[in-house]
Amino acid sequence: MGDERVRVQRGADRHRGGEPGEGIDSRYAFSFGGHYDPDNVRFGPLLACNEERLAPGSGFGEHPHRDVELVSWVLAGTLTHQDAAGRTVTLGPGDLQHQSAGAGIRHAERNAGPAPLRFLQMWLEPGTAGGEPRYTVLRSVPLDEPYEVPGAGARLRVCRPAAGAGLALPPAPRVYLVVTAGSVRLGDTVCEASDAARITDAAGLTAEAGPAGAEVLIWEFDGGHGAP
């Protein structure tokens, strides 16, 4: 019998969206855009965890955001980001981009490279609306060190355990784990690449990397912000 604190969502069960005819294949872990499931709207402050697959030359034209924390992680290929402030940045695997939209930003994201692009974009609700937008890019994110998103009461760790290595989960009220490469075992359940686990009261829980090792993104959320 599985641990009732752990709810696994398989990558194959994500809702398929995007514009396939335009080279955009989107896979939503939560309700997003025109896809609405009243039983799957958020996990704590986490509102979206979208896996985006863009063919060369495709992308998202300039569009607005406000009152949201946007965190992007490239899985394969290169992501070119442009914003209304005139900033252009190219991101590759191992780079993290964080935008606090604050009172409002406009930006565009596209695959300007020759190879297919896959990236995760995660949206978090800030505790306070408005404020000045902020922009951060980290090259080669340090492993196992928390990256703080203080406005959302959240911390993100990138972990790459070797084959068979154990990975202690933070003892937080809510933990969201995404396998981005390889596999991990959570109790009796094996999670493969693109699978995610929503964990409540993670104290004492560990994950074990599979035979090829793993790359795992682990979100740790403070209690009291967002529901359910």
From TrEMBL:
Region (Disordered): 1-24
Residues covered by the Pirin N-terminal domain: 21-124
InterPro entries: Pirin (IPR012093), Pirin_N_dom (IPR003829), RmlC-like_jellyroll (IPR014710), RmlC_Cupin_sf (IPR011051)
Transmembrane segments: none
Biased composition (Basic and acidic residues): 1-19
Family membership: Belongs to the pirin family.
Record-given protein name: Pirin
